[in-house]
Automatic annotation (TrEMBL):
Keywords carried by this UniProt record: Coiled coil
Listed name of the protein: DUF2325 domain-containing protein
N-terminal signal peptide: none
Biased composition (Basic and acidic residues): 1-13
Organism: Undibacterium hunanense
InterPro entries reported for this sequence: UCP020408
Ranges where the record places region Disordered: 1-32, 411-430
Biased composition (Polar residues): 20-31
Coiled-coil region list: 175-220, 248-282
Lineage: superkingdom: Bacteria
Family: Belongs to the UPF0751 family.
């Protein structure tokens, strides 16, 4: 029961009168016996049967009392039960027993009230708490319930029933509105669940595809790992079967490098031979004769290119040239007071010794016709960095060496090397 109002002002006046006349109430000779259902007046039976007993319970008790199943509706059962409650019979006794059992705890609470005012206070508390069915039966059958309190209880229950009906109508309207809202929310929930189901299905398919791809990749990795393991075992077996395999591999690599170097040198020799063949036969005859002549003779008759300088024990490094002319080169340099050093320009001598020879020399004669590219650029770069005098000659002949020394004599103050006196641009010689 909800939205109950408090009892009327007559009840409040009755409660005040009961407080003022408490002594007289306690002296009433009403005894302690509670009234039975058939002891109540007829106007009390309707609220007792309608409020204190649910319809299902009332129908069950009536069917049991009649030893059968009644076909009457709820209203007819309600009116028939009220009619039988006016006297003691099988149905009224069954209703009395049901009410006593159903509200035994409330009845026990009302037994503590010894005056009418106390009963009234318990009734008002029950109204405030919203539990009036049991309190109505316990107060109505209480020994201290007089006619005034009985009328007040009936009036209060009558108004509470009206309020309950209005509350029920409001609750029904609210319930209907909630039902409509529930339908809308149910439809929306169905759409959301449908979208959610589709999304889950799509994600499930995607996860299955990803899992299948993952399994495939794992299988491929396992296969690759197995292949690597088998190949590693085969390699280890081959290494164990072939002793000193690493050394042989290094030697084989070195042989390949030496073969490449030999091919390069053969190509250089072929190029040099082509250049030598292009020189006129007259120049070759003159160069060969000059190698056997006394080129250091100071008489103009025996020396086409007389040399008038004295090297004063300076070291002359001759880079390149023919190996057969080296003794003649040495004799020429030593006759004019120098010390002779020779490097073949990388054809046979180790090029790593070239830097040491360049550092020890005072004058460098670079014969560009018989020198490797690497040695040529190393000589040029070294002399340019250190400022050492260098004379570049083209032909690997004794006469060319003599002209180079003569050029050194005429350009004693020069800081860097200049092309040979043949007039050709030696920078382009390969």
């Amino acid at each position: 029961m909800c939205d109950q109002e408090k009892p009327s002002s007559d009840h409040q006046h009755q409660l005040a009168v009961a407080d003022n006349s408490g002594t007289s109430d306690t002296t009433q000779a009403q005894g302690s016996r509670r009234r039975r259902l058939w002891d109540l007046p007829h106007e009390c039976h309707c609220p007792v049967i309608g409020v204190c007993l649910p319809l299902a319970t009332l129908r069950r008790i009536v069917n049991k009392s009649l030893n059968g199943k009644t076909v009457a509706d709820d209203y007819e059962i309600h009116v028939g039960a009220i009619s039988d409650c006016g006297r003691r019979n099988r149905l009224s006794e069954a209703l009395q027993q049901e009410l006593e059992q159903r509200y035994a705890r409330t009845i026990q609470l009302f037994r503590t009230a010894k005056t009418t005012a106390a009963v009234t206070r318990l009734w008002l508390d029950a109204i405030d708490q919203g539990d009036v069915a049991g309190a109505f039966w316990a107060a109505l059958t209480h020994p201290r319930c007089d006619s005034n309190l009985q009328d007040g209880l009936c009036r209060d229950m009558h108004m509470l029933q009206h309020q309950a009906g209005a509350s029920v109508r409001i609750d029904v309207n609210r319930f209907n509105a909630l039902l409509e809202q529930n339908k809308l929310l149910t439809r929306e929930l169905g759409r959301v669940q449908e979208r959610h189901t589709r999304a889950i299905a799509e994600k499930t398919n995607e996860i299955e595809k990803q899992n299948a791809l993952l399994i495939q990749l794992r299988a491929e990795n396992i296969g690759k790992d197995s292949s690597i393991l088998f190949l590693s075992n085969d390699l280890n077996t081959l290494k164990a079967g072939v002793p000193e395999l690493d050394t042989r591999q290094r030697l084989q690599k070195k042989i390949e490098q030496m073969a490449d170097r030999q091919t390069e040198l053969e190509n250089q020799v072929r190029d040099l031979k082509q250049k030598l063949s292009s020189v006129s036969k007259i120049a070759e005859v003159a160069d060969n004769q000059a190698g056997t002549d006394d080129v250091v003779s100071k008489t103009p008759e025996n020396n086409t290119f007389p040399i008038t300088l004295h090297l004063q024990q300076k070291t002359v490094l001759c880079v390149g040239g023919r190996s057969g002319n080296v003794p003649t080169y040495r004799d020429l340099v030593e006759r004019i007071g120098g010390r002779f050093a020779h490097h073949d320009g990388g054809l046979e001598d180790n090029q790593s010794l070239l830097d040491a020879s360049l550092a020890a020399a005072d004058l460098v004669i670079c014969q560009t016709g018989c020198i490797s590219h690497t040695a040529y650029w190393r000589v040029k770069d070294f002399c340019k960095r250190t400022g050492k005098r260098c004379v570049f000659v083209e032909n690997p002949s004794v006469s060319s060496l003599a002209r180079g020394l003569e050029q050194f004599s005429s350009e004693g103050k020069a800081d860097t090397a200049s092309p040979a006196v043949t007039g050709k641009n030696l920078e382009t010689v390969k």
